[in-house]
Amino acid sequence: MSRRRPLLRRMRPDRRWRLLLVLLGALLCGALAWQVTLLQQRRGLEQTLLVSHRAIQTEIDRFRYLPRVAGEDARIHDALSDPGAPGAIDAANRYLEKIVTQTGAERLYLLDAEGLTLASSNWAEPESYVGHDYSFRPYFTEARATGSGAVYAIGVTTGEPGYFISARVDDPALGVNGVMVVKIDLGPLEQAWAEAGQRIAVTDRDDVVFLSSQPGWRYRPLTPLTPETRSRLGASRVYDSAALDQAQPLLTRGSVLLIEGEGRAAILRGTPFENGWRLLIATPLWPAAAAAGATAALVLLAGLLGLGLADLRRHRQRLIALRLRQTEVMERKVRLRTAELAREVEARARVEADLRATQATLVHTEKMAALGRMSAAIVHEVSQPLAAMEATLTAAEFSLSRAPEQTAARLQSARGLIRRMQRMTKHLKNFSRREAAPLAPVPVVEVARSALALTRPRADAAGIQPRFEAPAGDPMVRAGHVRLEQVLVNLLHNAIEAVEPGRGEVTLSIRETGGELALAVRDNGPGIPEDVLPRMTEPFFSTKIGAEGLGLGLAISFEVVQQFGGRLDIRNHPDGGAEISVILPLLENRNGGEWEAAE
């Protein structure tokens, strides 16, 4: 098996160079983001450094002159000149206690010329400074030599750190002097820095951190201490309980130090302070590294995306050219297929036209079948008037010369029989027409009685006497008189055929419900199966086995009722049998005889 070549080798030369350019651009953008982020961090640190410097300076300046001012009091001079005088030390103690309460200093105490504490603001506390010897403290020796002194140290008596400011107390008249010392607690500054998330440290003249927002930095030197420095710090007991001999230096390589839990950070800024102090501030490098990495990744991703889009565009152009060639081929095939489809569409149109004509013929055939079923009733109705008219005319012939009055009455009777036959033949003619008559207000009771009369021969043959439940008034609906009569005749015939001959019951009822009129035909037959109910109005669907009909009776009735603006409700009655209702809008006589739909 042959070895697979590396990815860059398998790439085309132009793609390889584009990829290398993208990688180089990503690296350059990452380096630029590194420098910009570092610059922003430096500016932020400079501002923080300035604010912190002012905060420390302000806190120290609050108490800088307190030892000198307090040392001018007569009670302090009395304690220095004659410590054994009754009440002198007590007065000085109470005076210093009052000063501390008013100024907010932590401690204020008086040393004699030998460094022994004569009076202190905490004289009444268990850890009182009174009687302790602080002659080894730098602030005492400096104040004796120069008039003032200051040092940050851990308290020998209390073990609590603080900033000690001292001032020499001179009394030329008495020839004695002492040292007044105030202790300031700078711990609130550390707490404020820590709460703000700032990494600030203050070092003394020996580069030992004595104040810091990072607990791990406190009382550690920046660089290894010389033996002389260690000896001097040990003699002054400035960091008495800090185990300075065992502390590891913070700066191991240049200006880079380790921040616990956050990796390495660079000390970006420092500023000199009084007494040889330095105020330092540090920040982690990971924001700059993260910005550089994110920028490089985004530029690389954008470059790769651009290369991909360029390749996609080239592939698209090739694909478009290929599709243009394919389109030419497809157009030729489409033209051929279009011609074939045109021929198929023409043939399908002819078939659909034949189908519609056949369907119309079948519908008319169903109407003619219904007309045939009514022919027996028509013949029965016509034969009786004809026989009566023949007898009437014969009698009129014999009585023409004898009794003219009787002859006129008999001719009038013959005229009535002729009119009755004319109405029936007119109904028969309208029933056989294909076109729809215009809609007009129709008396429902009259149409119902006419439909019952047309179905009477069929009912008599089945041994059934249909019942008619007429309303109190004479309601009107907007419909076609003959077509509504056709619908009722069809429903009555279906009901008669559904019941058992001789025992069946068929009822035609008219009910008014909420502005509508329902003409309901109900029978006590077996009812309609539930799975058949949804299909009852489908054309050519019939449940009659071997029947002469085509299954169009209910379909035609459904269409006719819809033309009247109504609906056909087909359901099984709760008490048994089927009930088919023609529901139409009810008309009311308003505005001087005009019929309008009821609200």
TrEMBL record:
GO terms for cellular component: plasma membrane. The keyword Nucleotide-binding applies. GO terms for molecular function: ATP binding; phosphorelay sensor kinase activity. Keywords: ATP-binding, Cell membrane, Kinase, Membrane, Nucleotide-binding, Phosphoprotein, Transferase, Transmembrane, Transmembrane helix, Two-component regulatory system. Signal peptide: none annotated. It is found in: Cell membrane. Residues 377-588 form the Histidine kinase domain. Its main location: membrane. It comes from the Bacteria. It catalyses: ATP + protein L-histidine = ADP + protein N-phospho-L-histidine. PROSITE patterns: HIS_KIN (PS50109). InterPro entries: HATPase_C_sf (IPR036890), HATPase_dom (IPR003594), His_kinase_dom (IPR005467), HisK_dim/P_dom (IPR003661), HisK_dim/P_sf (IPR036097), Sensor-like_sf (IPR029151), Sig_transdc_His_kin-like_C (IPR004358), Sig_transdc_His_kinase_DctB (IPR017055). It is a multi-pass membrane protein. The keyword Metal-binding does not apply. Its EC number is 2.7.13.3. This is histidine kinase. It comes from Salipiger thiooxidans.
